[in-house]
Amino acid sequence: MNSTDGLPVPRRYWAVLAITIGLFMAVIDGVSVNVALPTIAADFGVAESSAIWVVTAYQLAVTISLFPLAALGDRLGYREVYCGGLIVFVAASVVCAYAERLDLMIAARAVQGLGGSAVMTVNLALVRFIFPKASLGRGIAYNTLVVAVSAAAGPVIAGAILSIADWQWLFLINLPIGLSILPVAILALPRVPPTGRRFDFAGASLIALSIGVAVMTIDGLGRGYPLGLLAIGVLAAGGLGWTMIRHQNRSPAPVLAVDLLRIPVIRLSALTAICAYVVQGLCYVSLPFHLHDTMGLPAAVVGLSMAPWPVGIMLASVLVGRLIDRHSASLLGTLGLALLVGGVCFILWSIPLRSLPVLVAGMFACGFGFGLFQSPNTMAIISGSPPARIAAASALQSSSRLVGQTVGAAGAAAIFGLAAASSTMLAITVAVLFAIVGMVCSSLRLLRS
């Protein structure tokens, strides 16, 4: 049954439950494994820079497939893509848990990322048909809050699981949850008639290749690849990116939302999000090693030590709900990113001091700033897009987050390979620079308000 103005109650509540649980699992699996990286590296007997690919493979797979899967959702139907992605995600989670080699685990994580991407990319498009038009803004804000809390709470939940179980349970827990929510999704989610829009295979391939080559080149920097090979990687990524943009500009059914990126506010909002998530990626990957290896904290305590970040996000999200109608997204986002800059500076200061209280204070400031920035930034992207392009806007919002997290994780791996002795210090220094760039991009939106 398709509804022209949202789903009736109580079906609406069941549909919201289905997309919330699926989104929570897909987002949290992108960040929760960070806490277990030192243990995974030790169990497989590999270097830390290699173990980081357990995180990078997932984020890379999600990033390169978001826009192609959004286009596939338009062609096949959003519910169908969502439920198919949920099945792939749960099956790959089981393979990750029982993998006996790192290369098999990385491959399974990439497949898991494809399933997670299918869940994430059509999420906001489904929200549009679940909520009535009068409540659409509330639905988008709720969806954004779920993403924010999931991404930030991952390390805390992982720490709690690791305090009572092995790291494999970070993946096995998805099996009962996924099997429980799948029938709810099949029965409750709205069936939106597919548009029959032609799928641009060439465009999808160019997006995957350009992003994949760029991330592999960043990783090769940390692995000590020859400069000539790295130069080829840079040129190849640039050439593929240029070809991809030209192809998408000419395509009648573009996979990449190039039309949305021509809108200045959306373009600046996407750049702001990428920079902010690079900061989060660098912090979330590098700090567990500092807390575990340098400060000697057990994995459970590592997760709890990073708890102030999600706590800050949740507190700020409550405040944002009261401010968003009175102040512009640009102003709230810029203030939030200013706090993020200050918080990362506190974290940087704590590293040579080995001071957990200073680090915790910095984590809270980062989380609070992130909470002030994220929901208004997402609203700027969604509300600034034409109604017919809301699926593409959803993919753009998700891809900005995943591009930032993937670049942050790959950058951390490169830093760990190049400067093992001072890797965390250097990673957080780079995070400070990206936070400043993000704040500048956000402030430029104020000039256009």
Order of helices and strands: HHHHHHHHHHHHHHHHHHHH
Shape, principal axes of CA atoms:
globular
Q: Radius of gyration from the CA trace? A: 20 Å
Number of strands: 0
> Which second-level CATH architecture of the largest domain applies?
Up-down Bundle
Determine and state the CATH class of the largest domain: Mainly Alpha
Topology diagram in text:
Blueprint: H1 11-28, H2 37-44, H3 48-51, H4 53-76, H5 78-98, H6 102-121, H7 123-130, H8 136-162, H9 169-172, H10 174-188, H11 201-222, H12 227-250, H13 258-261, H14 264-294, H15 299-305, H16 308-323, H17 329-353, H18 356-383, H19 390-418, H20 423-446
Helix pairs in contact: 1-6, 1-7, 1-8, 1-10, 4-5, 4-6, 4-11, 4-19, 5-6, 5-10, 7-8, 7-19, 8-15, 8-16, 8-18, 11-12, 11-19, 14-17, 14-18, 14-19, 14-20, 16-18, 17-18, 17-20, 19-20
Can you describe what's shown?
The protein is 80% helix and 0% strand. It has helices spanning 11-28, 37-44, 48-51, 53-76, 78-98, 102-121, 123-130, 136-162, 169-172, 174-188, 201-222, 227-250, 258-261, 264-294, 299-305, 308-323, 329-353, 356-383, 390-418, 423-446. The two termini are 41 Å apart. The chain is globular, with a radius of gyration of 20 Å. The chain is mostly helical. It has 20 helices and no strands. Helix 1 runs antiparallel to helix 6 (102-121), helix 4 runs antiparallel to helix 11 (201-222) and helix 8 (136-162) packs antiparallel against helix 18 (356-383). The protein folds into 2 domains: 11-191 and 253-446, Growth Hormone, Chain: A, CATH 1.20.1250.20; 200-252.
